[in-house]
Amino acid sequence: MQQTLPRWFAHRGGGSLAPENTLAGIRLAARLGFRAVEFDVMLSVDGTPVLIHDETLDRTTNGGGHVCETPDDILFRLDAGGGEHIPRFAEAAALCRKYGLLANVEIKPAAGQEVQTATVVAQLTAALWQGAAVPPLLSSFSLEALEIARDLAPDIRRGVLFDSVPADWLAEMHRLRAFSLHCDAKLLSDEVLAEAQAASVPVLCYTVNAPEQAKMLLQRGVSALFTDRLDLFVSEAGVGQGLP
């Protein structure tokens, strides 16, 4: 299993340079030399895991309504930007394996669908990346989803997502047998970072789009950053190098 993390993750596939959560974004990130991508996975009404961030279709497609209430035959005819379709999770996984990308798969359950979404995504992740040279990383804001992933796909590393990191974060990490802490870059305290470093827990921060902020976070000891601005960081030391 790959032990080091690339320094940069392309947020939602290709960041701001491509329609978010699309295959075009993943291809672009790979072409620019990024070695890691992040994307969100939710279920359609038919139970198919697809790449999309919002619970509704309105912002990122030419459709409308809730993803979890939309059947596949409608969902996959929608335009997700620039003529791109909403990808199936399996399509994104195949592309990441083809390009050797580390995929941060965020389990993104619609309200009330934590168990179903986590069950499908965890089991499919284990199957899709079986024997992969670069294994994926599962993350979620839903601790319930991560608990299910821990039990159903114990060999897949897990990242715990917080906006503001709570006082008991390390206890939750231990309970979930998680690998990494993911949090809002603006809300990361020196105390939490020191605790993480003492416990050898990698800290990954979102969403970092300014060079000065990135430099400061890396100097403080943050392990990796999620960015929308692939264009600003493509030439940064570490992109494509897998530096710790």
From TrEMBL:
Record Gene3D superfamilies: Phosphatidylinositol (PI) phosphodiesterase
Signal peptide location: none
Protein name: Glycerophosphoryl diester phosphodiesterase
SUPFAM superfamilies: PLC-like phosphodiesterases
GO molecular function terms noted in the UniProt entry: phosphoric diester hydrolase activity
InterPro entries found in the cross-reference section: GP_PDE_dom, PLC-like_Pdiesterase_TIM-brl
Organism listed in the record: Dechloromonas denitrificans
Residues of the GP-PDE domain: 6-237
Gene Ontology terms describing biological process: lipid metabolic process
One Pfam family recorded for the sequence: GDPD
Superkingdom of the source species: Bacteria
